[in-house]
Amino acid sequence: MDNLVKTELFKLRKDRSFWTLILGLLASGILYPMLIFFNDGVFGADAVSVKDLYAYTALGGNSYIVKLVPCILAGFFISSEFSLGTMKSIGASGNSRFRIYFSKLMIFSIGAVIISLTFPIVIMIVGAILSGFNDMPAMDYVVRTLGLTLLYAAAFASIMAVVSIIFTDSGKTIGFLILFFILFDSIFYALSQKFSFIEQIFNYSVFKLFLEISEFDISNGILLKLVLVPIITFVVFGLIGSLVFQKKEIK
């Protein structure tokens, strides 16, 4: 297992799609606050609150990044290995499919987490520097929101990994996942308004709870739910993915 993890980590470090996505997010995180600070060519930082910039702009925009950008990585990091024949070589290495899948899921989740944390961290740092650290968010709020972002990024990554194993083609995987994460929230919400049992599922799903992590005041009970749901989701979809991979014919 240790060798498998090291191998997957090496692949992630060398993955061009991963670094292209990171560079794109770094550029976006740097340029976006500059558009706010430089209005009509005039620099104005006094009225800009880093707290609001982080809570509403960084975390708000990141809600799309967490669910959409790792879809691209999933297609290239997981699905493409089937078409390239890499997965067949890994399968013939003597390791169990359970270990192979979870090592790949673990490293893919790390990649998804790095992608998900890049944009809000960069925006906060750039905003703080440009504003002279005006009205900074509380450190416990930053730690809580980034920690929850980490958990939800891993949970969504576990769903992406299952789809990647099913389709085994990078183009199909990326296309399906992007459409799924764009449309599923709305469809799930609409159904929850019509059926009470679906409403209960929706209220305890990562799709709804992820939108609540940026709130400033969260009770201990809600915080516990926000922590447990993505962890359970990761475990459940991790097991589903491993079962699918066990029965998958690798050509």
Tell me about this structure.
The chain is an all-alpha fold. It has one domain. Helices cover 81% and strands 2% of the residues. It has ten helices and two strands. Strands 1-2 form a two-stranded antiparallel sheet. Strand 1 and strand 2 form a beta hairpin. Helix 5 packs antiparallel against helix 6. The longest helix has 35 residues. The two termini are 23 Å apart. The mean pLDDT is 89.
Number of domains: 1
Q: How much β-strand is present in the residues?
A: under 5%
| N- and C-termini, Cα separation | 23 Å
- Spans of at least 5 consecutive residues whose pLDDT stays below 50 are none
Sketch the major β-sheet. Answer: 2 strands, antiparallel
Principal-axes geometry comes out as globular
- Order of H and E elements: HHEEHHHHHHHH
- Main sheet: strand order: 1-2
* Tally of DSSP helical segments: 10
Number of strands: 2
Radius of gyration: 20 Å
Please outline the helices and strands:
Blueprint: H1 2-14, H2 16-37, E1 38-39, E2 42-43, H3 50-84, H4 86-91, H5 97-131, H6 139-167, H7 170-192, H8 196-203, H9 206-209, H10 220-247
Antiparallel strand pairs: 1-2
Helix pairs in contact: 1-5, 2-3, 2-5, 3-5, 3-6, 3-7, 5-6, 5-10, 6-7, 6-10, 7-8
Short description:
The chain has 251 residues and is mostly helical. The chain has helices at 2-14, 16-37, 50-84, 86-91, 97-131, 139-167, 170-192, 196-203, 206-209, 220-247, and strands at residues 38-39, 42-43.
